[in-house]
Amino acid sequence: MGVSVENQDYVHRIDHLRQTGARVKFLSLEPLLGPLPHLDLSGIHWIIVGGESGPGARPLKEEWVLEVRGECQVARVPFFFKQWGGVRKKRAGRLLEGRTWDELPEARAFLTVYAGA
Question: Among 1, 66, 87, 114, whose Cα sits 20 to 30 Å from the Cα of 22?
Fold first, then answer.
């Protein structure tokens, strides 16, 4: 189960997610519309970050993404960078510091859920 957290105004959703019985909990930080300093990632198994796409897309700042990635690394939470977004999202791509970030939660976490263990 996951929740969307677009900016600091919605961080409270993470506490609601922690209170669920979901065995795998993830945050969808997309579109990321502001900095999320000092995220408490306890009990979170995966983070997905992405920019807004399409006409009128608001910008995604690299420092916001790097801050989240750094917090994921410290907390040992897998980090997936989906896209920079923008009007031409394919052109903007999904490279962050010269590489793609496709980390996923451990397969055994998903297998436990599906096996009903």
Answer: 66
